[in-house]
Amino acid sequence: MEVVGAAVGALVATTSKLLCSCVSSKTNTTFNLHSNLAAVEQEMKSLTDRKKEVKRETEATEKEGNEIRAQVVTWLKDVEMLQPRVNAIEGQMFNNKKPSRCFLNCRKRYRASREVEETLEEIKRLLLVVEKFNDGVGSTSVPRAVEPVLGTSIRGQTTASKKLDEIKKALDDGVQVIGIWGLGGVGKTTLVKNLNNKLEKDSTQPFGIVIWATISKNFVIKNVQTRIAERLSLEVKTEESEEGMASRLYQRFQKEKKYLLILDDVWEKIDLDSLGVPGPKVHQGCKIILTSRLKEVCKAMTTDVEIKIEVLNDDETWQLFCQKAGDVAHREEIKPLAEAIVKECCRLLLGFMETSLYLIRLTTRPDSNNVAWFLMGDFLWTYVNCRTT
Predict the structure, then answer these.
(1) CA 367, 370, 371, 376 torsion: positive or negative?
(2) Are residues 35 and 127 in the same domain?
(3) CA 191, CA 179: separation in Å to the nearest integer?
(4) Domain ends where: 135, 170, 196?
(5) Is the domain of 122 the same as that of 183?
(6) Letter string b/e over residues 112-150, b meaning 16 or more CB atoms within 10 A of that residue's CB
(7) Is residue 150 part of a domain?
(8) What domain range is 59 assigned to?
(9) How far is CA 289 from CA 260, 268, 296, in A?
(10) Are residues 163 and 297 in the same domain?
(11) What is the number of domains present in the chain?
């Protein structure tokens, strides 16, 4: 009996210790659990807010065609994986509020407390990591929607202003590819530069980005690609092939809702795919303006509208010439020859105007005498003969 009594006593003592331990553990765990849950809720809210900020930054960076830092990608994945854990903990806590036996309830709360503590530590770690992203998640330089280009203003030129309005109307009417053609020097580039600069000043212009690229007669695809890539704030890789850059440009353009590509001085058909430009058939927000001396080139580029630029009339040419030359063009001894040059040369080839102005300005020099007259006369004679041969 003594042995049995001793065994029963030992069993009772052990059971009492377990019960006391359970009660004590339950009390401590419950206290820690509630405080940690409150901390998880508060810290998780901070983490979620930071995640939204980082996502906005990554979207802006990707839109510019730049890569996201690997550390940022990993951080975002870790935050995504953490959210289900937090949701599960909240659900488990709700279930644990139901009545149950002391022993089972104690065990569940202990495990839950450990899980909450580990989750809280992970949240705090991620909040520390995100502080390292304050200098950016990648290359976040945002290109200007429109960059101004240097060019002569067409203010006061009735004919050119009407043509500019015609181009703008074509853009507004939903035309996607516009060809501007006419003889060399007639003012196609000047006109399109004025369009570009008007868009730069227009806060309501619809394009996410306007890109200017000069093609010229013997153009090199890689050089044009480089110009476009720089405009898009896309990294230029020296050793990259034309195909590789075209692929990256193509992907970058797809991130723009609406863009305008201006191709100046086009001499032959350009394969937009080889260049890396998704054309209107692929990208509904794409619009292209090209200038060329030949209407056939515009047609080859499948333009929707071809706008011909004509020579200036005599009055407009003289006004433009006087704007450039200044008062010297009205001097009695200069005006007849200046008018002859304007009539014979400048109405068509505006490039000759700069030469004419230089010659006119020679007359203002004290030692000019008849030198400028001779040079101007010789210039005019040479040009007239060139046109008749």
Answers:
(1) positive
(2) yes
(3) 13
(4) 135
(5) no
(6) bbebbeebbebbeebeebbeebeeebbeeeebebbeebe
(7) no
(8) 2-135
(9) 8, 14, 15
(10) yes
(11) 3
> Hey, how many other C-beta atoms are within 10 angstroms of the C-beta on 353?
21
> pLDDT of 84-131, one tens digit each?
888 877 766 655 555 444 444 666 666 777 788 888 888 888 888 888
Positive or negative, the CA dihedral 146, 172, 186, 359 is negative
Q: Quick one: 111 and 204 in the same domain?
A: no
The contacts of residue 129 (CB under 8 Å, 6+ apart) are 71, 75
Query: What does the DSSP 8-state code read for residue 179?
Result: E
Predicted confidence (pLDDT) at residue 388 exceeds the cutoff of 50: no
Average pLDDT over residues 20-42: 63
Contact present, 195 and 210 (Cβ < 8 Å):
no
Convert 130-157 into a string of H (helix), E (strand) and C (coil): HHHHHHCCCCCCCCCCCCCCCCCCCCCC
Q: What pTM does this model have?
A: 0.59
Pair 191, 243 in one domain:
yes
In 3D space, the residue among 348, 251, 254 whose CA is nearest the CA of residue 293 turns out to be: 348
Q: Measuring CA to CA, how many Å separate 104 from each of 23, 101, 107?
A: 12, 6, 5
Per-residue confidence (pLDDT) for residue 387, from 0 to 100: 45
Last residue of a domain, one of 135, 167, 182: 135
Whether 304 and 318 map to the same domain: the answer is no
Query: CA Rg, the chain, in Å?
Result: 38
Over the stretch 183-193, which tens digit does the pLDDT of each residue have? 888 889 999 99
**Residue 203 in tokens:** 């806060």
Closest CA to 268 of 219, 214, 315: 219
